[in-house]
Structure formats: structure tokens, C-alpha cells
Design brief:
Elements lengths: L5 H24 L3 H24 L7 H29 L3 H24 L4 H21 L10
Length: 154
């Protein structure tokens, strides 16, 4: 197999870089402030309901599951705060770039809550609320994720 020449490597690099603005331009062209704000409002309400539901359920037995349950509740508290912050920023007029870090934080908290939730006992009535919250985060993804990794479904 031949080693690529410096010219071939530069051409490959420029070709790859040329594709980057296309995905950013696509995301900016498809940004819908009203739609994203509406989804964020639903998300904040869903997280609030999920957290309230998690707080009203009894603790798991002493040990690992109880610690996991408390950690999951803390993740939900942080998700509630972050989702409210996302709504406030979107309603203020901040767009994709200004709110992307908040969205990324929500996704990170979601992963943490899922991990802690797997170790804890989750009542059936809470599972439906988890699914609703996950669906809303999934609906936000096309507006924040790169086009190649998350094509829009709407």
C-alpha cells in the first residue's frame, strides 16, 4: 500500500473541512426558535413532574440501591434547574449556539440519571414519566446535534 503524498493529504483535509460548514449551515437554516422553545417548555414541565413523582415514592432499602436512588434524585434536581434555564434563555431570544451548552448539560445529566436509575428501584408510574422526558430530549436533538449524527425527524 502506498503512503499518501503531502498533496493528497492536504486535499483530503480540505475536503473534510469543506463539509463542516454545510452541517452547521443546515442546522442554522432549520433552527426554529418557536418550536425549540415549545419543546423546552414541555421538557421543563416533564422533568418537574418526574422529579415530583420520584420524591413521593418511598426510598429503596438501605445499601447500594438507596444511594443510587438519592443520586438519581439529585440528577433530576439538576435537570429541572437546567431545563428551566434553557426555557428562560430561549424565551429571552438566545439561539442554538447560545443554548447548546445547556442542552449538552441536560444530555449529560440524563445519562447520569439513567445510570443511577438502573441501580435503583423505579416504580411503574415513574417509568412513563421517564419515557416522556426522554422523548422530549430526543425531539430537541436535531436542533442541537450535528446533522450527520442526528437527522431531523419532523
Amino acid at each position: 500500500m502506498r503512503t499518501p503524498t503531502p498533496t493528497a493529504r492536504w486535499l483530503a483535509l480540505f475536503a473534510a473541512l469543506a463539509l463542516l460548514p454545510v452541517s452547521t449551515a443546515w442546522a442554522e437554516a432549520n433552527w426554529n426558535q418557536e418550536r425549540v422553545t415549545a419543546i423546552a417548555v414541555e421538557l421543563a414541565q416533564s422533568v418537574k413532574e418526574l422529579r415530583a413523582n420520584a420524591r413521593k415514592n418511598p426510598d429503596a432499602p438501605i445499601g447500594g440501591p438507596r444511594r443510587a436512588q438519592h443520586a438519581a434524585r439529585e440528577d433530576l434536581r439538576l435537570m429541572e434547574n437546567s431545563s428551566k434555564h434553557l426555557v428562560a434563555q430561549l424565551e429571552k431570544g438566545d439561539g442554538r449556539e447560545e443554548t447548546r451548552a445547556i442542552y449538552k448539560r441536560l444530555q449529560s445529566l440524563r445519562r447520569d440519571a439513567e445510570e443511577n436509575g438502573r441501580k435503583a428501584r423505579i416504580p411503574d408510574d415513574t417509568l412513563g414519566k421517564i419515557t416522556a422526558t426522554q422523548d422530549l430530549l430526543r425531539r430537541l436533538a436535531p436542533y442541537y446535534e450535528d446533522v450527520a449524527s442526528a437527522p431531523p425527524s419532523n
